[in-house]
Amino acid sequence: MVEGLVPALPSQDILTPVRQSKRRVSSKTFSDFKADKVLENYSIKNSKCFTPIKGKTPLCKYSFFPQTIIEWNNLEESVVRAKAVGSFRSTVLQWD
Questions:
Q1: Residue 69: is it exposed, middle or buried by C-beta count within 10 angstroms (0-12/13-18/19+)?
Q2: How far apart are CA 37 and CA 8, in angstroms?
Q3: How far apart are CA 46 and CA 43, in angstroms?
Q4: Whole-structure pTM value
Q5: Are 70 and 86 in contact (CB under 8 A)?
Q6: How far apart (Å, rounded) are the C-alpha atoms in residues 24 and 3?
Q7: How far is CA 85 from CA 3, 16, 51, in A?
Q8: Which residues touch 85 (CB under 8 Å, ≥6 apart)?
């Protein structure tokens, strides 16, 4: 969708690019502690990040687009910069 390969869903209607700054936000992890996804929702790890969709109800908040945007924003730069769908898929499978 980001690269315009899904013509039925224009990305500009759903996705709002994050205004980039030099500061990166990421959550700190500890081996003995699992934090709830407080900062993970706002994590920016690549140059093609989008503003998370805020849902007022759990049905909206945990639906496809809001959750996929959070996952997309947590991908590394090398993953989102893949040149073709096949290379993107293989990179995602290796990264996970």
A1: buried
A2: 31
A3: 9
A4: 0.68
A5: no
A6: 23
A7: 10, 22, 23
A8: 5
Asked if residue 33 has pLDDT above 80, the reply is: no
CA angle (92, 61, 76) in 5-degree steps:
25
Tokens of 25: 């936000």
- Give the pLDDT score at 17: 82
Q: Where do the structural domains in the chain lie, given as residue ranges?
A: 40-96
Q: If DSSP states are collapsed to H, E and C, what string results for 17-85?
A: ECCCCCCCCCCCCECCECCCCCCHHHCCCCCCCECCCCCCCHHHHCCHHHHHHHHHHCCCHHHHCCCCH
Model pLDDT, residue 96: 57
